[in-house]
């Protein structure tokens, strides 16, 4: 079974323990509790200062103006100006600190998700769309920016303001306070309903954004554009993207309009409260109730208006928190992914690696429901020798090779390097010990030099050139206008398949691993290019333990040992001549290869003979 043929990954069920999820979110802010404490102090000070203004206004209206005390009037007016200045300064400082903390939390989340994904096995990436992964890191974490940078501060600020304002209102007149707050429970209930509604829509919206990101990543890559153009599907892809975008438009509108009318009713009612207060005070006075001074009434309405902004803000913050829980849930799904391949608590580190590889009764399957991909494999590869692994498609050749660098872990038996189970080795030792050159060569959108130095960041220019010469690619690089500074393009599309393969070989030569895995490194190349790449491979393989997964059997005849796999089992093994004398599976594969190779060469010669347009 090929590594790509795996069941689709299903994310875990939705977290229903919301209090636990909230506690987990709060833990993200724990490293910054000192800064948050400063924000809390600033918020409290700002709330107290702003609440003092109506009391100063009351004194102006009830004492300073009626009694003509200009000195007191000047002092109270100065106090109101100072209150405004302090409130603004405190607001700027708390915004600076809270925004910094929020951005640090987002950085921590992005790094945690990326680090988690770096530790996932190859199986995860073969069953997960790249756009989905990118959307989790970019869209989901980016969508939480308002929550982690301002929501927490807004919650504390608004809550403090509401509490301080209500206390001040009670101090002025408790009866008017009761009138002002009688509808508050209804408002809280409305905000919770709106929050739950937006949370559901947000989950759907983020899934749709992930689907659209995956479509963009696949169809607008170089390979995607080539496929779309050559298949005449550009218009179809555009129409498909338009449908994805249309669904996103609908979800965005629903998300923004969810509960808008209900919240509008809350806003109207709270805006009308000053009129209600004036009316209540007038009615009370008309029917012999307690008299309320003009200063008290104006100060109370000022406080009530001051209560309006933080109260509405508090309700809106509750809605925003409910919405952001959906985003946090999607991030936590990735952070909770089980890591299949882990390092031992006390791993073994090898300073000197000889390169002996052994497969001891190795078996492997992708999940419990699938049949074995490998079963009962026993092979010893002495240090410095070469082993070729051949067999029909789906025999398990690539999977066997990928067990050595632990791209997968065995499900039975063990794989050893110099007698040590590879699962007991530390990751650094394994990375130094095993190099992989596959058919799918990956190059970054960077210069040739940067791509080569990915294997050895401190490599000198002389070392780069020596590796390129060994890989038969130096002359090609040197002929480019920018030489080693030439940008290779996305996935190296500025270079031919053979050139990319030789760049990958040069990169591996820089790494200088004692064990080399060659996964059908020449299967997609024409005969002429294959000869150049094979020469580079021969240079790379010298004095190394080499496992070659071969498609073209002409490239492995010189191997010290050849193993034939079929349905995950070793059916034959020996040298090329021994297996040909046996006249079994290997001999049949060689005869089939010999029949197809002349046809391939004829097609190649025909292509070369065609006149250039």
Automatic annotation (TrEMBL):
<dbReference type="Pfam" id="PF00005">
    <property type="entry name" value="ABC_tran"/>
</dbReference>
<dbReference type="Pfam" id="PF00664">
    <property type="entry name" value="ABC_membrane"/>
</dbReference>
<feature type="transmembrane region" description="Helical">
    <location>
        <begin position="264"/>
        <end position="287"/>
    </location>
</feature>
<dbReference type="GO" id="GO:0005524">
    <property type="term" value="F:ATP binding"/>
</dbReference>
<dbReference type="InterPro" id="IPR017871">
    <property type="entry name" value="ABC_transporter-like_CS"/>
</dbReference>
<feature type="transmembrane region" description="Helical">
    <location>
        <begin position="36"/>
        <end position="57"/>
    </location>
</feature>
<dbReference type="InterPro" id="IPR027417">
    <property type="entry name" value="P-loop_NTPase"/>
</dbReference>
<keyword id="KW-0547">Nucleotide-binding</keyword>
<feature type="transmembrane region" description="Helical">
    <location>
        <begin position="152"/>
        <end position="172"/>
    </location>
</feature>
<dbReference type="InterPro" id="IPR011527">
    <property type="entry name" value="ABC1_TM_dom"/>
</dbReference>
<protein>
    <submittedName>
        <fullName>ABC transporter ATP-binding protein</fullName>
    </submittedName>
</protein>
<feature type="transmembrane region" description="Helical">
    <location>
        <begin position="178"/>
        <end position="195"/>
    </location>
</feature>
<keyword id="KW-1133">Transmembrane helix</keyword>
<dbReference type="InterPro" id="IPR036640">
    <property type="entry name" value="ABC1_TM_sf"/>
</dbReference>
<dbReference type="InterPro" id="IPR003439">
    <property type="entry name" value="ABC_transporter-like_ATP-bd"/>
</dbReference>
<feature type="transmembrane region" description="Helical">
    <location>
        <begin position="72"/>
        <end position="97"/>
    </location>
</feature>
<keyword id="KW-0067">ATP-binding</keyword>
<dbReference type="InterPro" id="IPR039421">
    <property type="entry name" value="Type_1_exporter"/>
</dbReference>
<keyword id="KW-0812">Transmembrane</keyword>
<feature type="domain" description="ABC transporter">
    <location>
        <begin position="357"/>
        <end position="592"/>
    </location>
</feature>
<keyword id="KW-0472">Membrane</keyword>
<feature type="region of interest" description="Disordered">
    <location>
        <begin position="593"/>
        <end position="613"/>
    </location>
</feature>
<feature type="domain" description="ABC transmembrane type-1">
    <location>
        <begin position="37"/>
        <end position="323"/>
    </location>
</feature>
<dbReference type="InterPro" id="IPR003593">
    <property type="entry name" value="AAA+_ATPase"/>
</dbReference>
């Amino acid at each position: 079974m090929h590594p790509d043929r795996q069941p689709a990954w299903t994310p875990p069920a939705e977290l229903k323990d919301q209090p636990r999820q909230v506690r987990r979110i709060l833990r993200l802010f724990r490293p910054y509790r000192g800064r948050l404490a400063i924000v809390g102090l600033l918020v409290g000070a700002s709330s107290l200062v702003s609440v003092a203004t109506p009391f100063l206004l009351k004194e102006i209206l009830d004492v300073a103006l009626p009694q003509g005390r200009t000195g007191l009037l000047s002092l109270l007016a100065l106090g109101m100006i100072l209150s405004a200045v302090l409130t603004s300064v405190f607001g700027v400082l708390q915004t600076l600190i809270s925004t910094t903390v929020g951005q640090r939390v987002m950085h921590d989340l992005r790094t945690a998700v990326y680090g988690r994904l770096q530790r996932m096995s190859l199986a995860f990436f073969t069953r997960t769309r790249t756009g989905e992964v990118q959307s989790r890191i970019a869209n989901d974490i980016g969508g939480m920016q308002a929550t982690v940078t301002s929501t927490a501060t807004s919650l504390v600020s608004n809550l403090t303001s509401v509490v301080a304002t209500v206390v001040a209102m009670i101090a002025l007149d408790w009866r008017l306070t009761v009138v002002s707050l009688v509808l508050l429970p209804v408002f809280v209930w409305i905000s919770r309903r709106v929050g739950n509604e937006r949370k559901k829509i947000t989950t759907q919206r983020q899934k749709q954004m992930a689907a659209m990101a995956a479509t963009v990543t696949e169809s607008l890559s170089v390979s995607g554009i080539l496929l779309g153009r050559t298949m005449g599907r550009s218009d179809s892809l555009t129409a498909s993207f338009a449908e994805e975008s249309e669904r996103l438009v609908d979800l965005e509108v629903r998300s923004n309009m969810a509960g808008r009318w209900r919240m509008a009713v809350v806003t109207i009612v709270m805006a009308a409260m000053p009129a209600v207060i004036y009316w209540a005070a007038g009615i009370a006075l008309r029917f012999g109730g307690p008299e309320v001074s003009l200063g008290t009434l104006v100060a109370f309405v000022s406080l009530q208006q001051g209560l309006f902004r933080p109260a509405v803000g508090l309700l809106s913050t509750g809605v925003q928190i409910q919405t952001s829980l959906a985003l946090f849930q999607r991030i936590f799904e990735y952070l909770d992914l089980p890591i299949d391949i882990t390092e031992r608590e006390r791993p073994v580190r090898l300073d000197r690696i000889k390169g002996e590889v052994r497969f001891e009764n190795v078996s492997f399957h992708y999940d419990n429901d699938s049949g074995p991909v490998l079963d009962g494999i026993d092979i010893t590869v002495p240090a410095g020798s070469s082993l070729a692994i051949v067999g029909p498609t789906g025999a398990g050749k690539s999977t066997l090779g990928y067990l050595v660098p632990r791209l997968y872990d065995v499900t039975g038996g063990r794989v050893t390097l110099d007698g040590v189970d590879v699962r007991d080795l530390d990751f650094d030792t394994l990375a130094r010990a095993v190099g992989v050159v596959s058919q799918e060569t990956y190059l970054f959108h960077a210069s040739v030099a940067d791509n080569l130095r990915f294997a050895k960041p401190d490599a000198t220019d002389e070392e780069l050139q020596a590796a390129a010469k060994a890989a038969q690619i130096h002359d090609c690089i040197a002929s480019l206008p920018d030489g080693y500074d030439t940008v290779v393009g996305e996935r190296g599309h500025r270079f031919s398949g053979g050139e990319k393969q030789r760049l990958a070989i040069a990169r591996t030569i820089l790494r200088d691993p004692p064990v080399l895995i060659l996964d059908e490194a020449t299967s997609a190349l024409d005969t002429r290019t294959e000869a150049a790449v094979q020469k580079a491979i021969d240079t790379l393989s010298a004095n190394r333990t080499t496992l070659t997964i071969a498609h073209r059997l002409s490239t492995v005849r010189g191997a010290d040992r050849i193993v034939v796999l079929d349905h995950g089992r070793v059916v034959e093994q020996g040298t090329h001549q021994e297996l040909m004398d046996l006249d079994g599976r290997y001999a049949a594969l060689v005869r089939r290869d010999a029949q197809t190779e002349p046809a391939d060469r004829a097609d190649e010669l025909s292509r070369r003979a065609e006149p250039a347009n």
